[in-house]
Write a structure and sequence with these properties.
This protein is mainly alpha-helical. The protein has a domain of 90 residues. Helix content is 67%, strand content 3%. It is built from 18 helices and two strands.
């Protein structure tokens, strides 16, 4: 005999599925999810990715017993300093970088007591690509500094698309020879960033910068910079030749 599911049970299941749409669920439904100790870690992670900039929700998430360490670190690297302090007090842990964890280990070896250390660097390294991309798009400077080292160009592009990115970071990234070429190309295509001479100079002197990008900045270099470019054997020959040509022209113009 075919088993018939009561309409009330179907309706209840449908309601439960609707509340799982965390992007569009009502504040009341969201609150119920956060207060329910049985809400799975995956659902809490989705809520964190959508509402990371809402301090009230972030605090409720931190209190959830099923919250995964990766999500806790995500909140620490995307939310305000107040939330980071809230995490260290509520969860009785210190959310630290690798070097801080090493210092804590040294203290422990000397017999000094300290809180449990939640090593952000190690946990970020264990995150899935999708988790890293979301963190790169929304995370703090600490997160951006960690993730820009990733070999994945998608993660690198997500870092430089982060609205919190500062011009100082852009200049630092432009100098880095470990960045993916597509990331350097994206930096070089941003007119606002490249109006700053230090960014343009960093890109031209970076051997990883695509030649098509570098050549566009050579004409903006000072005579001193051009002379240095001409002698720089690490950059592509086409860039050196362009610098050499401009040096000769400038000298002829002086004569």
């Amino acid at each position: 005999m075919e088993k018939i599911t009561p309409r009330s049970k179907i309706h209840s299941t449908q309601q439960l599925q609707i509340t799982f749409d965390v992007e569009h669920c009502s504040p009341i439904a969201l609150r119920k999810l956060l207060l329910d100790v049985h809400t799975p870690a995956g659902m809490l992670e989705r809520i964190a990715h959508v509402y990371y900039d809402d301090e009230h929700i972030a605090r409720d998430l931190v209190r959830c017993p099923n919250l995964a360490e990766a999500t806790l670190v995500f909140l620490a690297l995307t939310s305000s300093e107040e939330i980071k302090h809230f995490i260290t007090s509520t969860r009785v842990v210190d959310v630290v970088m690798e070097e801080d964890a090493a210092a804590a280990a040294a203290e422990a070896a000397k017999g000094q007591k300290s809180k449990k250390k939640l090593n952000m660097s190690q946990i970020v390294n264990k995150m899935t690509p999708s988790q890293k991309i979301k963190l790169a798009q929304t995370g703090s400077k600490e997160a951006r500094t960690l993730l820009i080292r990733e070999s994945s160009k998608i993660i690198g592009l997500a870092v430089i698309a982060n609205p919190k990115l500062t011009i100082g970071e852009v200049e630092f990234f432009a100098k880095s020879t470990s960045l993916n070429e597509d990331v350097l190309r994206k930096i070089g295509s941003n007119n606002e960033w490249c109006r700053k001479p230090s960014v343009a100079t960093a890109l031209v002197n970076n051997p990883k910068t695509p030649v098509g990008i570098s050549l566009g900045f050579v004409s903006r270099m000072t005579e001193k910079d051009l002379a240095m470019l001409e002698r720089n054997r690490n950059i592509p020959e086409a860039v050196r030749a362009s610098a050499r040509s401009l040096v000769i022209k400038k000298k002829m113009g002086k004569g």
